[in-house]
Amino acid sequence: MPYETILTETRGQVGLVQLNRPKALNALSSLLMRELMEALESFDNDPGVGAMVISGNQRAFAAGADVKEMSGASAVEMLRRDIIATFDRIQRIKKPVIAAVSGFCLGGGCELAMSCDMIVASETARFGQPEINLGIIPGAGGTQRLTRAVGKALAMEIILNNRILSALDAERFGLVNRVVPVERFLGEALALASEVAARAPLAVRLAKEVINQAFETSLREGLADERRLFYLLFASQDQKEGMAAFNEKRPPTWKGE
Ligand code: CAA
What we know:
Blueprint (H helix, E strand, L loop, with lengths): L5 E6 L2 E6 L10 H15 L6 E5 L4 E3 L4 H4 L4 H7 L3 H7 L5 E5 L2 E3 L1 H8 L2 E5 L3 E3 L13 H9 L1 H9 L4 E2 H6 L5 E3 L4 H13 L3 H13 L5 H14 L4 H11 L10
The protein binds acetoacetyl-coenzyme A (CAA).
């Protein structure tokens, strides 16, 4: 299906979505968010796809929600449009999603990257939540996900003082998985995605689910859920195959069953 604001393609078992509003630094308009979620959900339902990558271009992953679209809106209009609800849909994607970030990754762009399961950053990536300069606060998870990722002290500085994190700082504070030279950021994210896409699909899906649950629940409940899912995987063909392959000293062949 042709999209207006994104480009999509599959590379092997990886579904790639490129945000494509370069003149607006990939500002997240409501149309872009709708198209992005449609594309991710369609890859999620495609049995040939095992993982996804979201990227922008070298200059910008995304410079935030579309300020021009929302600057004249009233609170009631904002509530009615509720474009941030689209962000919730990313939580329901079952396969791993990796953000490939270069250049500006600000506001809603940073919140989008933090909604993904892993972040690969180019050396030129810049992370920030500059909403305070517009007289607002982050609205798509910035105060919550950033605080969980980097801790209260730094989150306060980023959100209240508009501190922008370099890629290396973002790596040092645990916001991103790895930093690579700019010409490699997309290739590295695709390689990470194809590596995970080649693994046992049910185990990958349940591992992602229960890791994300660690942010939602008590340790006791999280441990109990983890144990149940661990035992459940012994009902899968892939568990039999994985352990047989180990014993027979050969590579496993996963079926996702
Ligand atoms: N929304 C709409 N358009 C944007 C945009 C945004 N968030 N960010 C950049 N653009 C547009 C600019 O308006 C400009 O368009 P025109 O050429 O038509 O004027 C174009 O992209 C290029 O931007 P600049 O000329 O400003 O480029 P620069 O290199 O001088 O500056 C920048 C880059 C520092 C990222 C600057 O563009 C900027 O500060 N952008 C806004 C960042 C921001 O405030 N993000 C938070 C948005 S609110 C939010 O995200 C709420 C939420 O939590 C959901």
